[in-house]
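Format notes (please read before filing issues)

Several people have asked whether sequences and structure tokens are stored in separate files. They are not. Every record keeps both together, in the order shown below: the sequence lines, then the token lines. Line labels are part of the format and must not be stripped during preprocessing.
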Amino acid sequence: MSGLIEGLPDAVEEENSTIPLEEFPYPANFRIPFDFFVSKKYKGLGTKGFIRFTDSTSNLVYTVQKLSHKSAADDPHCIKLLLDSYGNTLFSINRVSKGSWRGFRGNGEEKDLIFIVDKTLDEFKRTEFKILVGAENNEDSKTELRMKGCPFKRACTIYKGDSIVAETSLMYKLGIGKIFVPRNRFRVTIFPGFVDASLVASLIVIYFDGRKLWI
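Then the structure lines:
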């Protein structure tokens, strides 16, 4: 699974620069943690915002698009797309029921099912999820992850066994002249040993699914 970025989507008007694929600074064998920065971008006054992931130099990496359905019987919040910076769909994130999601490679073909996420705990100060990544019909090839934290505090940690895959944190500037950083902007740190950054981004989208501050 690829976590690399490419360019800038025509559908998203961004002032940020982009990084060509061959110059992406975080290779598969990276040895130190690296950060993405998550925020909500608005195209204009009164418009609904969309989530974007940028790197430490403000280059656009991923955006999140919500699909709208023409049928009133369909839930307009049940499908979200994780796009690379060219606008190509990396993952289709389908909420199949309350507390259950399916992630598909690309636009959501059943044969391209990549991960299954189920919420196992839902409390005001704590939520937990079980994640299965891998082939649908091959139990031996699946990887189990766990995701837990407190959405209100923008705190989320993803585990593989006892190892931390990624974690989020709010950003603060210290000192007398500290600058206020809004709560709809936070950092995602990905640690060495798990190279699919796009999968991590998809799980972060699921973690905050349904929160009005997001999408």
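For reference, the curators noted about this record: The CA atoms of residues 32 and 192 lie 6 Å apart. The chain has one domain: 21-25+33-207.
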